[in-house]
Write a structure and sequence with these properties.
Elements: H1 15-22, H2 28-39, H3 49-56, H4 60-70, H5 75-89, H6 93-103, H7 110-128, H8 131-142, E1 147-151, H9 157-170, E2 174-176, H10 181-188, E3 195-200, H11 207-218, E4 222-228, E5 240-244, H12 256-273, H13 275-290
Parallel strand pairs: 1-2, 1-3, 3-4, 4-5
Helix pairs in contact: 2-3, 2-4, 3-4, 7-12, 8-12, 9-12
Pfam family, one: HTH_6
Domain SIS: 137-275
Domain HTH rpiR-type: 13-89
């Protein structure tokens, strides 16, 4: 059977993201393989074919058919891609800096590097995002009966805050999870089925974010995840996963593509809410003037 798409490309999606993209094309048995893999990713794919088949309660040939549908030539190629992805997931600014130091600074300078890297990363992120995932996210955010709580990590908390500021203006009932333990506990103690928790988690994924996702989903809350192309472990718990590229002109991963994705989501949400968003914006403007806020 021929491979429908090349797997190993410099800016290709990660294996987990590829699985999610192709899920709708799979047979019921193949979907069981996909769910078993995502539920314990990537560990479930690093054992034997027989072990993955047993975990998914399917036959070994079903596993191989599923991998062929993803574009892999066989199980060894699939595992090689997983191992390479694991190495990429562990990359830190320091290891990226040392790698650049060994090869020497690129001659073109930071500005040309940024001009070459960032637009491609943004365009690739938007092109690779399945329309169905964006639509599912917009449906959740448009449900004003759902209370939105957003949280991020050391750097990505900035993105969570940015999203919440927009949601406050166009749909309300949205808040940022605070850093203070007492305030966090107060905000989370009543989380349940009428809550939508938005998490931002990028490589060198934070254990606290995974623990939070486990807790809120156990209480019945829905999770939307913004992550990178390798997918945070939270992906196995999330209702919707929105991955971004992180290609950057520096040793630090870029959040520019994720910011573009956040703004795309906000634009799509305003489109869906229509006059409701307009009325909310008008009310916010009036309130700002009444309370003397700039």
């Amino acid at each position: 059977m021929s491979n429908p798409d090349p797997v190993e490309e410099p800016h290709g999606v990660g294996v987990a993201a590829l699985v999610r993209q192709r899920l709708g094309e799979c047979s019921p048995a193949e979907r069981r393989v996909a769910r078993a893999l995502l539920a314990s990713y990537p560990a479930a794919g690093l054992g034997t074919v027989a072990a993955l088949a047993e975990r998914a309660e399917v036959s070994a040939p079903t596993v191989l058919r599923f991998l062929s549908r993803l574009g892999f030539g066989g199980y060894p190629e699939f595992q090689r891609a997983l191992r390479e992805e694991l190495a990429e997931r562990e990359t830190s600014p320091l290891t990226a800096y040392r790698a650049a130091e060994r090869t020497g600074a690129p001659p073109e300078g930071a500005l040309p590097r940024a001009a070459a890297t960032l637009p491609e990363a943004v365009a690739g992120t938007l092109a690779e995002l399945p329309q169905g995932e964006l639509d599912a996210a917009v449906r959740l955010f448009a449900d004003q009966q759902l209370r939105v709580t957003a949280a991020g990590g050391r750097f990505s908390a900035l993105l969570a805050h940015y999203l919440v500021l927009h949601l406050m203006q166009v749909r309300g009932n949205s808040r940022l999870l605070p850093a203070s333990p007492v305030e966090r506990t107060d905000m989370l103690v009543d989380v349940g089925r009428r809550d939508l928790v938005v998490l931002f988690d990028f490589r060198r994924y934070e254990e606290a974010t995974l623990a939070l996702a486990r807790n809120v989903t156990a209480r019945g809350a829905k999770v939307v995840l913004f992550t990178d192309r390798w997918l945070s472990p939270v992906a196995g718990l999330a209702e919707v996963v929105l991955p971004s590229r992180v290609d950057s002109p520096s040793p630090y991963d870029s959040f520019a593509p994720t910011l573009a994705l956040v703004e795309t989501l906000v634009a799509a949400l305003i489109d869906r809410l229509g006059p409701v968003a307009g009325a909310r914006l008008k009310a916010m403007e009036a309130a700002q003037q009444a309370f003397g806020e700039d």
